[in-house]
């Protein structure tokens, strides 16, 4: 069977819809992983030990097992306890939590790197512990951590292909639908790869711009 | 928690873990080979090799590993490449992780001070000799830890071959979740085995790193 890319344009609408879903999932999971990552970092650093220890175990479990396995757990596990989420939501939660754990590691290091003098000065000026974190420490920590979090988001884009296995019709599953009708896997998977690559390049370009602006603001 | 069920199915998970270990080892070997070649290409004096190396890294790091695996396994037969699922898994994942390892190895080599190369060239060593006897031994020590990070990612990455029906840990967990409706038990069982594999590998790499520092 020879290659024939002329069948691809007929399915362009299916593929583009998949691209749209891939972008939505990546954005949704990125935003979730960012804010939950900050939350996790604060728990890991400041929560009392009886919260911190179970949390560490959870973190360890999420970093030590494959994302695909976690997606199965979240999707089928929630159904087992009676919560039937749409696949899209389960995918965003799975990807978001997975990357939140990785972002949390970065944010923790970054919070610890903020000079102690900043906290002391804020406390002396009468801010509470919570206010000091909220207005002084976390904003500075987050700025430093944006470039590596950008790398995580680019990795997340590529991992978003995994949610096709729990039935989210993003780019990978769209390609599979087209393959189901045409029996041309090579053509459609290469097409999907090309779209992923394009989104990846755009994200890298945006990341470089943001990094330059951060470098200037310092 | 259904302990009876876990006790009944765990032998199948042990078998699956053995497949995951085989996949991981073979993928790591292929990845290191691709990474070394890739790094050599990226550091070559010849522009054409540098371009090939850069394109390899960019394409394979810029697209999902799952799609690469699908192109090879499902698309391969269209261009005359017939592989069974296990072979496709090893080759697909190995070439993919090789792109990441290329950057790790290259990073370690360019981290060695240029003065080292200049000094050994001045002392009469050829370009190859100064690389072989001066730069590489030092770079090798630097790359153990970051390669360990790549290998950690690779072990978790072997789960992807579940999507092409290789009966490894994730595929086994998925199948038993489907037949028993006990996702938490199956996750716990397969997750524990993954963590044992990853923990043991991590200890091995830490040991290598310590040894490399002493000598």
TrEMBL record, chain A:
Annotated ranges, domain ABC transmembrane type-1: 19-207
Compartments in which it is found: Cell inner membrane; Cell membrane
GO CC field: ATP-binding cassette (ABC) transporter complex
Membrane-topology annotation of the record: Multi-pass membrane protein
Record's keyword annotation contains tRNA processing: no
Keyword line: Amino-acid transport, Cell membrane, Membrane, Transmembrane, Transmembrane helix, Transport
One GO term of the biological process aspect: amino acid transport
The keyword Transmembrane helix is assigned to this record: yes
GO MF entry, a single one: transmembrane transporter activity
Family the entry assigns: Belongs to the binding-protein-dependent transport system permease family. HisMQ subfamily.
Protein's recorded name: Amino acid ABC transporter permease
Automatic annotation (TrEMBL), chain B:
Entry keyword annotation includes Metal-binding: no
Keywords per UniProt: Amino-acid transport, Cell membrane, Membrane, Transmembrane, Transmembrane helix, Transport
One Pfam family from the record: BPD_transp_1
Top-level taxon of the source organism: Bacteria
PROSITE patterns in alphabetical order: ABC_TM1
GO cellular component: ATP-binding cassette (ABC) transporter complex
Function: Part of the binding-protein-dependent transport system for glutamine; probably responsible for the translocation of the substrate across the membrane.
PANTHER family per the UniProt record, alphabetical: GLUTAMINE TRANSPORT SYSTEM PERMEASE PROTEIN GLNP (PTHR30614:SF20), MEMBRANE COMPONENT OF AMINO ACID ABC TRANSPORTER (PTHR30614)
Residues annotated as transmembrane: 12-39, 51-73, 147-167, 187-208
Name the record gives this protein: Amino acid ABC transporter permease
């Amino acid at each position: 069977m020879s290659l024939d890319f002329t069948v691809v344009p007929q399915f362009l609408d299916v593929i583009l819809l998949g691209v749209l879903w891939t972008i939505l999932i990546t954005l949704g999971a990125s935003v979730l992983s960012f804010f939950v990552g900050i939350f996790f970092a604060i728990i890991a650093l400041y929560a009392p030990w009886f919260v911190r220890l179970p949390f560490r175990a959870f973190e360890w479990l999420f970093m030590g097992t494959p994302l695909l396995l976690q997606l199965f757990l979240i999707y089928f596990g929630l159904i087992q306890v009676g919560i039937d989420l749409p696949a899209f939501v389960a995918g965003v939660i799975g990807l978001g939590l997975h990357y939140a754990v990785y972002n949390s590691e970065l944010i923790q290091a970054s919070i610890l790197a903020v000079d102690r003098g900043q906290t002391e000065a804020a406390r002396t000026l009468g801010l509470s512990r919570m206010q000091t974190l909220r207005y002084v420490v976390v904003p500075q920590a987050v700025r430093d951590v944006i470039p590596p979090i950008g790398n995580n988001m680019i990795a997340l884009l590529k991992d978003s292909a995994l949610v096709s296995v729990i039935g989210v019709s993003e780019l990978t599953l769209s390609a599979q639908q087209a393959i189901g009708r045409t029996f041309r896997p090579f053509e459609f998977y290469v097409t999907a790869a090309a779209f992923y690559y394009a989104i990846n390049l755009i994200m890298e370009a945006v990341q470089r711009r943001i990094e330059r602006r951060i470098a200037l603001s310092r | 928690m259904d302990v009876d069920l876990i006790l009944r199915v765990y032998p199948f998970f042990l078998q699956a873990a053995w497949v995951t270990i085989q996949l991981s080892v073979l993928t790591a070997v292929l990845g290191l080979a691709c990474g070394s070649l890739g790094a050599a290409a990226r550091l070559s004096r010849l522009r054409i090799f540098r371009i090939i190396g850069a394109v390899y890294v960019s394409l394979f790091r810029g697209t999902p590993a799952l799609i690469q695996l699908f192109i090879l396994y499902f698309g391969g037969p269209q261009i005359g490449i017939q592989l069974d699922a296990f072979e496709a898994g090893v080759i697909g994942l190995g070439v993919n992780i090789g792109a990441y390892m290329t950057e790790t190895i290259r990073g370690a080599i360019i981290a060695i001070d240029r003065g080292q190369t200049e000094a050994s060239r001045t002392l009469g060593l050829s370009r190859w000799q100064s690389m072989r006897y001066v730069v590489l031994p030092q770079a090798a020590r630097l790359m153990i830890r970051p390669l360990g990070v790549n290998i950690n990612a690779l072990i978790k990455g072997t789960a992807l071959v579940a999507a092409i029906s290789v009966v490894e840990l994730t595929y086994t967990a998925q199948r038993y979740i489907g037949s028993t409706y006990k996702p938490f038990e199956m996750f716990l069982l397969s997750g524990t085995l993954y963590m044992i594999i990853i923990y043991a590998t991590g200890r091995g790499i830490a040991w290598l790193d310590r040894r490399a520092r002493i000598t």
